[in-house]
Amino acid sequence: MNAHVSLSENPVGLYSVEERIRRDQSVWTLVQGILAPIQFLVFAISVGLIAHWWLTGSWLMAAHASIVIKTMTLYAIMITGSIWEKEVFGAYLFARPFFWEDMVSMLVLALHTAYLAALFGGLLSDGQLMALAVAAYVSYVVNAGQFLWKFRLARLDASSHSNIEASA
């Protein structure tokens, strides 16, 4: 048995010391920080357009366009997030700290992609398309909540590490 164990081999908190350094130095951390609020803004506008269509029956094309744009922003954040995860943790998906977030992300991607396939393939009625979009959006909200929770944990972890370093 090895008597010397580095902090990176046995991480306490969300990130090991080395992972935290890679996260803080990665350009993809900034990219994710920019894309996440953009995606949420597109989502909020789209929810309004979907609700407007449900209530009035008008603005259908605007609702469809907003869902397509939301899906494109989702793809962008998922691709860049996978690159970030590879850079920080060494795996494109399902790294230890983000395993469950990535699992739910797969559902989010599947539902958004199913919407695109159904829309462009003419496979569902407008009401069914909107119901599918709502299901995709509910999964997105759950997933966003997971990531916000991890963001909070990372901030608490960073705060506790800075307190430890200050007292040393």
Number of strands: 0
Low-confidence stretches: 1-10
Structural class: mainly alpha
Could you say which overall geometry the principal axes of the C-alpha atoms support?
elongated
What does the oligomeric state look like here?
A: single chain
Compute the CA-based radius of gyration.
19 Å
- Fraction in helix: over 70%
Q: State the end-to-end distance.
A: 29 Å
Series of secondary-structure elements, N-terminal to C-terminal: HHHHH
Q: Estimate what percentage of residues fall within beta strands.
A: under 5%
Number of helices: 5
Mean pLDDT: 88
Largest β sheet strand count, sense and barrel closure: none
Write the layout of secondary structure elements.
Layout: H1 17-25, H2 27-56, H3 60-89, H4 99-121, H5 126-167
Helix pairs in contact: 1-3, 2-3, 2-5, 3-4, 4-5
Provide tags for this entry.
0% strand; 168 residues; mainly alpha; 80% helix
Word description of this protein:
It is a single chain. Helices cover 80% and strands 0% of the residues. It has helices spanning 17-25, 27-56, 60-89, 99-121, 126-167. It is built from 5 helices and no strands. It is mainly alpha-helical and 168 residues long. The model is unreliable at 1-10 (pLDDT under 50).
Brief account:
The chain crosses the membrane at residues 30-55, 61-84, 104-123, 129-149. With 168 residues, the protein is mainly alpha-helical. It contains five helices and no strands.
